[in-house]
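Field: sequence (string)
Field: structure_tokens (string)

Example rows 1 and 2, in order.
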Amino acid sequence: MRLVKPNWVIHDDNPIFSVDIHPDGKRFATGGQGGDSGRVVIWNMEPVTDEAAELDQNIPKMLCQIDNHLACVNCVRWSSGGLLASGGDDKLIMIWRLAGGGGGSSLFGGKAGVETWRCVATLRSHEGDVLDLAWAPHNPWLASASVDNSVIVWDASKFPSIIAVLKGHTGLVKGVTWDPVGKYLASQSDDKTLRVWRTTDWGEAALISEPFDECGGTTHVLRLSWSPDGQYLVSAHAMNGGGPTAQIIERDGWTQDKDFVGHRKAVTCVRFNGNILQKKQPGSSKPQQYCCVAIGSRDRSLSVWLTCLKRPLVVVHELFSNSVLDASWSPCGMKLAACSWDGTVVFIEFSQQELGQPLDPAEQSILHERLYGKPLIQGGGCTVMEAPELLNVKPPTPQPQPQSTKPVNSVPTVTTSTPVKAPINKQIETRTSDGRRRITPMFIPPPSDIMDNTSGAGVGAPTFTSTSQTKSSIIIEKRDDIVTPNVSSALNSTSSNTAAPNLTLKRREQATPKPHHSSQSKKIKFASERSGSQIFLPALKPSSSLSQQAGHYAVTVKNSRGLAHLQVFRGTDSEPLWDLYLGYNAVALAASPAVIVLALEDGSVHTFHPAKGTRPAPPLAPPAPLARIHAVGCAVMVISSCGAVRVWEIGNTCRLIVSTSADHLAAPGTSLLSCTLYNGMPHLAFTNARAYIYHKEMGTWLLIGDSQDPVWRWSAHNASSSTGNRVPRGPLSTLQEGLHRTAGSTLPNPRLPHSAPCVVSYLEQQLLASKALGSAQEYNHWLMALVSFLLTQDGLEKRLRLILDELMGPSHSSAIKSTWEPNILGIKKHKLLEDVLGVLAKHLRWQRLYLEYSEQLTAIKSASS
């Protein structure tokens, strides 16, 4: 056994919550806390296993650093195909794929790496932190567990489609795992239960609670695991006789009479070696088969067990300075990685003499088939044939059925593949004008063994056919019609039998009619070709295809031969719910659950209802050429390249909300970093680290962030370090977070003689910006931050009294009765005053001020009641 703890595998001294080794064994990923965001890092395995490679400066250690998550990353998991899934406190799951070229993948930057990993899908459906992820063994399904008490099963081949949402837990779901044949999915929760779900109908197969009745609450994950032979499910954080254990649950009857005992504190994670192992025992002719499992605990130790032994193979004590949070085995089964809350990762390398010989994958598959029957992959799902005699039964000839449409979030959802059509028993022969013959090809289904292999790859369902051969019944029908050859259509046609690549959302190609222009050579002039206006942003240009997700609807636009083909799909349907052709190429697409917005190269903007396909308004003609379009709810925003900004409300009644210009906001050489809408107000952020919102009542743009201003940025840093509280997610923090990353990490030093007034001014600006945005949660945060800072400074009592007087109301001379409002952003000011007084009560030096205002507030409440 060899133990390695590389000191270079770190997240800048932040916790590492998850580790997972790539299926090829050449990389591993870690997930955890970054500097000011969640962080995923992909590392090279060679410097870990080879000391010479570790010392070689030409061999990279870090391959890529990804800082795209807005909050801490709790779990990273590789799929068998090399996709990486990451989930975190920002409620998001991101799917990453290796792309060509070098450099980091973070949107706002990060450490440059030797590999580029692109985010190919972002899954948004959880309402709370995502704590654990698990890929299914035989199909592209991903299960995610969240603090919103639910488990969601996603289809990776059709992201972001949802297979099922499992709701049954009454507490935070902290762990999820699949059984090796894909028949069951198990989840463990803070509600002191472990639930086993059937994948055939997503019903509950077992509810296990007895081993967890004595368990207390935990802030740790509960990563459970299934043995590779499918016989045992091992949980985390169980109790037996007052001591912590890892509970063993047998598949046969879900019995719970065994457990792994020995850790001094609660078990946090369990991870089985993916290989079934075997070792020849003395005096035995046949080798003994068994499984291997690693168990991590809050007692900072890691134990490795073999199911053929009653005691652990090895226990490594005080491996870390904090709890073990995750573990992962290499595909060869000889390397084990574990990570800890202390921000370090350890690797343990075993020999085959210590662990045993891994079973060949083919032998392991035969063992599964012997125990559970032959797995049948249907549309990406896995159905276990538990009665082998059914394999000899010939099913009735499948008939073509119209595809049904189901909403994406239907629960449960069972995916089935389209039946294979029978062969055409007729060939049609035609003759073209140049004398050549054309034979329409017939479809011949592949033999049964090919279908079985294809099914195993998750492409389609197997078809059982008879071995007896029959004579061909193909009829050749000759036609004397003269047909003009069409070379272009023959080149553009695609075979319906071509298998789509794995993990790619592929819509059915439909023929695009030729445009009926009187002259193809005559060029149409559009508004974008006019000159004379100052360029604020580059104008949008047509692209071959555009796509957007609008709630349960997927919207795609394809440009071909001067036409735009708009298609809207519901859920995972392969046929469009509705489609439409438009006479010009599309340049931009935006969509929300309430409206679809399509901008064409002639400068017109078309709006549609996603479900109905109807137009709520005639085509709009805003100032062209167009540079950005955006849709949120019923609001649609258009920004032209000359800086004109228009916002409309699109619905039963359509009206203009905002009409203004933003051409004076961008400095020369800068571009737009982001644009969005909040409460109908445009938000713009630029690459010069300045952000603005448009205030409708005031009729002007408001500056709400400037990370290039040294005083503003220095004050922001000192305010955050002095208050210490985490800023809640909201429109203000989202905009300013992008500005901080754009400005860089170097903090300016303006050499201010008096810093306190600058910090107070910054906090007041944040308070006013939150109020202008209508963000109540952020307003409450910055109010408490301002009060907390004032309490630590001398000579600012007058400023503090102004805040207290305004919250108290017209009993004070400084609060004018005619203008005072009892609420702000829907929050009662007296409630805010109670919270502020609670902060005052913690500072003894302000006890007189606390008593003065608390007595008056009590008197006002008594008088009003």
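Row 2 begins here:
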Amino acid sequence: MASLVEVIDQQLRQLLGSSATWFIDLGDRHLAIWIESTQVDLDRLTRWGTLLRQKWQGGSLLLFVAEPYQSFPYWWKSWSAPSVGAPFTQLAEGSGRDRFIICGLGSLGQFCIQSLRRFAADHLAIEICAIERHRNIEWEIPQLAELLSEPVVIGDCRQETVLKAAGIDRCRTLLAVTSDEATNIATAIVAHRLNPHVHLVVRSSRDNLNALLAKKLGSFVALNPTELPAPAFALAALEEDILAAFTIEGQQFRVWQQTVTAESPLLGTPAHRWQRRHQRLISIRSCHSQSSLFQPTRPHRLFNHWPPDLHFEVGDRPIWIERVEVVKSLPVADSTLIQRLIQQGRQLPEQMQQFWQWIHSDRSRELIFRGLWIGSGLWLLTALLLRYNVPELTWQKAFAAGFILLLGGFGDVFGGLENDPVPPWLLVVCILVAIVSILFIVGVLGLLAEKLLEARFEFIKKRPPLPTADHVIVVGLNRIGQQVVQLLRTFRQPLVLLVDNPEQTQLFEDLPMLFGSITEKLPQAHLETAKSLVLTTPDEMLNLEAALIARQATEQRQSPIGLVISIYNPTLTNDLRELLPRARPLCAYALAAEAFAGAAFGETMLGLFQIEQQTVLIADYTVTPGDSLEGKLIGEVAYGYAVIPVFYKRHEQFLGGETSQQFLPSDTLQLTAGDRLIVLATIDGLRRIEQGKMAPRRQWRLWVGLPRNAEAVLEIGNLITKITGLSLPQSRAFIQQLPAALTLELYEPQAFRLGQQLQALAPIRLFPLTY
């Protein structure tokens, strides 16, 4: 080896002269040459490398050219590089198959079968058994029966004999997804009694009952298929940059996309600089190809598929997840009584002005207020006249008598036939006061009655007028339609509701609505200026007809109206996209079934949404001893399984009193048994976690020179352990030998971060050994 290094060193001296320096790293399976120079004839260097490769057959030959004192090369070339990483290990066929029982073969049940098979793919051996009450099953998905491991069991899934015939004793998960929630709950209770270890996934919308059953039955998950897909419909209707909005542990998140333009601050900047504590880049749809040392080998994935040193260019479409900050008012310090009085005195003129505005804003309030002033004046006048004109009358009795007169009690004050010592003129004044007070009381009572009637019959008021532009038209108010309307209202989106069912006219009385034939009323909803049309009626052909009417009515628009179409036959999806370009056909049960499939493998599904026609699930994991997450760094989970960690909670307090939970957690945290992790994942990501099949890492060679100062030595070792997961004793043994080289298996973002942070502490060279 020494002679080979000497020969290469002599050839490089002749090739490059004194204008460059180089570093030769010879290993068992690789020969890496690192050249530092600003002026290198790359073509000549490539020809030399080709000749060297012909003479040396010991493994991979790698050439790198870097700027002086830089950690990463700007040019590289490899010869005969081995395949990336090790192949995935297959599961042993003899280890047994997981058994799943699906009760109910309606639309949701059939889509659950399809999603379970997609989840398992070819690497996970599972058995799927189905139970259906009726023999005549209408299959909505072609060849779906072939995905079952055995013929359908016919019978009532609530009966013990039927569940035993389906193999409940060896079942891993039972999915009760019939259209009758009572049947689903009863089936779950019977199944738990027959097999206490079975995992139960139930279709149910009764939140209180579900929470109580989860405490009693243990491994129990209840999902509502009408709520899960609603965000996908609502966000598709917005046709804006927001792709999703959800809440985790009281913290709101949103997923949004943007397009890089010539005026964008992103233009020309590296992607890694825009990662923030409250915001993360999760996907990039790039319109250009960029050669990068850190180019991942998995570009087909939705998440984490771009090189971390990518620079944004015009036309790129990054997608972000952002934690919405909630700004709370700071607490006000306690003040003294005098200070509070002074402060209230200063606010008095403003409060009086607000009071007068409130009085004059309503005619009834103004009349009542004037009546109170007149009544008070008459009360004081009557009391004074009685006190000074009636002998032996006290002030107390004078004011009491005046108040009685204001209430129409003239007989109570001057009752009887005896001669009262009251002058006649005063008697006439008191009569007038009583008459005015009676009229005043009658008027006030009339105004109050009018207000009560207005409140009582408020439901017969006319709805608000139809918006004229930039509104969303929602057709049909079934359960999904109602959820869509509620979500769109949270975004303060102008809406128009269109229904043909009289019972639905009582819903959302504060929103504009059209009632009648859908096809006849649709043009009246200002189609030509509407933002989008959401069709959620149970009639698939009606949805298609309305979509065609809307597209035809808006042909002259610069941009066609957005169409979100609820379908029930998944085979129509591709046909509708060809028939109606830019339309979004969504199958509610197909979306919900992916959440049910994920829940069937023991995970808790918190919601779902779509990114570029791919369903993204929000999965809640609790790390258990021996599972595929224990001992992994969060960065390894993110890049190895292609998921986005959103929330992390440690089962015990961190050392040093740090918080035990983090939103958008750091890549360097290590998962232990009992920890909780919430991720965004596709069905492929969930399957990889279930099987423990992480994407292969690349081998990287790290050379570290002498530290810039003595204090940096320990920090170098800590950083290597923190970012790579290498044990602390191994890291400290390495730094004691500096300058030295180390081979690591890392994902591209980990390697990039390691180089970025180490280069400030010591001269380093970092390059991959595999491509």
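free_text_note (row 2): The longest strand covers residues 614-622.
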